[in-house]
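re the bet — no i am not wrong, look at it urself. input seq straight from the record:
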Amino acid sequence: MEIPSQEIHIKIDTPRSSINKKKKIKLADAEPIVLMSVLSTLHAGYFRISLSLCSQALLWKIMVNSHSELPSVVHYLMWYLALTTQVSLCFLYAFKCVFLFDLVKEEFVHYIGVNYLYAPSISCLLLLQSAPMIEPRNVLYQTLFWIFVVPVLTLDTKLYGQWFTTEKRFLSIMANPASQVSVIANLVAARGAAEMGWKECALCLFSLGMVHYLVIFVTLYQRLPGGNNFPTTLRPVFFLFFAAPATASLAWNTICGTFDTIAKMLFFLSLFIFVSLVCRPNLLKKSIKRFNVAWWAYSFPLTFLALDTVQYAQEVNDRLASVLMFMISSISVLIFLGVMLLTAANSKRLLRRDPVLWSATGPKDK
């Protein structure tokens, strides 16, 4: 006698509420993970972006003041864009200091990364100098100036002091093109002090920046170990070679109130170094194969040079100087727009962990 087999289908309905709860739990867990991954990849080198925006805002402010036919709305738009970017980066980096302080300490002892800790202060000082609604004699302006300058002086004491007191941190070992960021910070601060009428403070900051610029420039000119260990992907930072004298020329012009012989000498030096770099495209060929945030190092040095050409054209009042001003300013704006579009197109690649920054703390470690 055969018993007929029957298939039994059991269907278990999962309540939708439990599925929704699981999804909510997963989303809630994912949000802090995404935030922490962003913070772990963020470093002070990203302030190159705000540095370029703030320098462009200052360029447009000076150009609008000297050429009334230019629309002032461009200056306002650039300044508010720079302000938004700077505030966003500062908030993110502040969160990193709170939650991932060990990574910040690694950045502080890195022979390249420590130099970009000046970048937030430089951006804030440029943002303050390009502000359309605050006068330099204002109490708020002076208060903000000291808030932004104190970190620069603190880093100066740490960085410059260890170059001649710490055995493993001599300048001949640690020197690299990014070391000039500290010089630019002091020179931008000197210009801000001169705008407020604090001539003695401006001369102090200017002398501090220029003395160390000469030391760094001579050290790098000799091609000592620090410069030879500079990564290929960071070669756009070579544009800092002409950014430092260009900023010095701009600061000295503000201190003296006129574009005198010293300002012209510094301007011609920066122009010569710029032409020398442009005539050697093979030097930068390997660094432009893949997008990197270091590409923003092309933008702000050119903007500082453009600022010098504007001041030089106003002083000389010559047709050739006006043509030079138009050429350099146009190149500066085009490079800025180009890098901004490339950054938007490569936004996924932008937040990747930098292998250069976390690979070694010094040239010998590599």
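see?? The radius of gyration is 25 Å. told u. also Confidence is low (pLDDT under 50) at residues 21-30. so pay up
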